[in-house]
Amino acid sequence: MRSILNEKNLNNKKILLRLDLNVPLENGKISDTTRIDKILPTLKFLIKKKTKIIILSHVGRPKGKIVKELSLKPICEDLKKKLNVSTKLITKNIYEIKNKDFFEKFNEEILILENIRFYIEEEKNDHKFAEHLASLGDIYVNDAFSCSHRAHASIYQISRYLPSYSGVQLDLEVAALNKITAEITKPITCIIGGSKVSTKIDIIKNLLPKFDNIIIVGGMANNFIEYFGNNIGKSLKEKNCHEIIDEIISLSEKNKCKIIYPDDVLVSKFLNGSPVNKELDQILPDEMILDIGPRTISKITNIIDNSKTILWNGPAGYFENPNFANGSIKIAEKIVENNKSSKIFSVVGGGDTVSLLNNLKIVGNFNFVSTAGGAFLEYLEGKKLPGITALN
User: Domains of the chain, with CATH numbers?
Assistant: First the structure.
């Protein structure tokens, strides 16, 4: 995989830059600019190199139709302000843009083609569509790691027609994930949550041979608590998971990886209720497990203290109610504490976890925070991502 940072001859080159600018829009306003902020280093590098930048991106799932509410216009305005360079949104039909000379009539440093998913050929990975896109530039750069698990025309097929490179953000994402899957500094611990064990089973199976500890928290911990003979009341749980947990326990013993689940929990009869700390054998039929208890927090923070590398994907409890956010907050604080003293390398991913860190205003205190979602999880499962394969 060649990084655009290492390419010397960029002056006056037209760069087709694939970004993930799929930010949340509410009434035409951007409610979270995290994804935009993360790709600014690549744009600044290309501006400094005096290139002409043509951005390809998408918002939402218009399924090949023009949807006014999913225009990239608000994103174009945001980039213009943040970069302080002339930026223009091109709404003309891509098929009517015949070749790269089309861009000579513009003085703008950055041109943004309208939502690439307005074209059905994008998600069909159509080779003619990709070839037409490629005709508009000299070089292709993928800085959309979060879309790289999709075999779409502007992610996969396009690399067949142009010299292709990775962008700054994609390089950082892959390097961070390699540090927790390939170039590991041990002891290494994974803290994994979520509501369903079945959605994380492939990640757990892929990480078990490499990790020293896998800590199960959140809704999926309820299945483990019940598996080991405890009543979990009316707690969130996934049905028919006994065989999956059997397999995880068997593999953990075979690979000498410890599986840790809560020793004590915070419960309530209602999601908006007050917390009550309970041992696992004390949970009543009308109670829900909504967070980890103080003894479990102590156990997890002790494991973090004895780890060199941490992967965190999924909060420890129902953090939307502050009464049940303490477990997640204490985990975050302990990782940050060890990060500041350079005792640990930390990677965080998953929408809920990132949301929690944003609320606490501590996102910048981790080595790497991924917003990639599906691509992040598929990489951890050991799958080959089409966007990365194309660059290789």
Answer: 4-168 (3.40.50.1260), 184-380 (3.40.50.1260)
